[in-house]
């Protein structure tokens, strides 16, 4: 039987509990989820692409057989098709995410009609959570244990020693 695969693309700089929630929920719906770290977002990133991939693999170590962690550059829709997938999975938090996501989803559909973007609403505890806010709290020496798994906390502490 054909496997239903979703690609969950993003910067993941670094992965947060909000992302992990979307991955777990994605795995309830799809046979396989590919977490795809965008290489072109490295310029302004805190962690290199390789670091981000390593951190995601460590954070998701228990979920390995139906979860793949990869990188991509170039057109996302082409990468999605190369994975045997038809679905781009994205998370939506506040209304402020909508405009941006709407534009990208429209553009991706214009480029490759057969690729669908599906959105999952954030779970209540993570509605305010973003990689940027986590980096800001970390840079100020704040406690991040509620927002990220221990492996991410450790990686952030190495970037921002107290
Ligand atoms: P990008 O730079 O592509 O927006 P991110 O790593 O910031 O990449 O986010 C990847 C995806 O995860 C996006 O769809 C984003 O909306 C979603 N996301 C980020 N944080 C959360 C959260 N707390 N709850 C739900 N979805 C989230």
Q: Can you describe this structure in just a few lines?
A:
The protein is of the alpha/beta class and about 160 residues long.
Outline the secondary-structure elements.
Elements: E1 5-10, H1 17-29, E2 32-38, H2 49-59, E3 67-72, H3 76-82, E4 87-92, H4 95-111, E5 116-121, H5 131-139, H6 150-159
Parallel strand pairs: 1-2, 1-4, 2-3, 4-5
Bound molecules: adenosine-5'-diphosphate (ADP).
Residues 10-12, 16, 18-19, 22, 41, 90-93, 97, 122, 126, 129-131 line the site of adenosine-5'-diphosphate.
Describe the structure.
With 162 residues, this protein is of the alpha/beta class. The chain has a single domain (5-159), classed as HUPs (Rossmann fold). Helix content is 41%, strand content 19%. The protein has helices spanning 17-29, 49-59, 76-82, 95-111, 131-139, 150-159; strands spanning 5-10, 32-38, 67-72, 87-92, 116-121. Strands 3-2-1-4-5 form a 5-stranded parallel beta sheet, sandwiched between helices. Strand 1 (5-10), helix 1 and strand 2 (32-38) form a beta-alpha-beta unit. The longest helix is centred in the middle third of the chain and has 17 residues, at 95-111. Adenosine-5'-diphosphate is lined by residues 10-12, 16, 18-19, 22, 41, 90-93, 97, 122, 126, 129-131.
């Amino acid at each position: 039987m054909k496997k239903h695969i979703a690609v969950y693309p993003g910067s993941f700089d670094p992965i947060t509990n909000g992302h992990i929630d979307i991955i777990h929920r994605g795995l309830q719906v799809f046979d396989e989820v590919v977490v795809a770290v965008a290489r072109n977002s490295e310029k302004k990133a805190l962690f290199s692409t390789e670091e981000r991939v390593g951190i995601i693999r460590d954070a998701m170590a228990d979920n390995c057989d139906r979860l793949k962690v990869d990188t991509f550059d170039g057109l996302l829709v082409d990468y999605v098709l190369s994975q045997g997938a038809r679905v781009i999975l994205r998370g939506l938090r506040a209304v402020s995410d909508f405009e941006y996501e709407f534009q990208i989803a429209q553009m991706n559909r214009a480029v490759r009609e057969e690729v669908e973007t599906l959105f999952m609403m954030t779970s209540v505890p993570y509605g305010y959570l973003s990689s940027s806010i986590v980096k800001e709290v970390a840079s100020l020496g704040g406690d991040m244990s509620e927002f990220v798994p221990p492996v991410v906390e450790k990686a952030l502490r190495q970037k921002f020693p107290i």
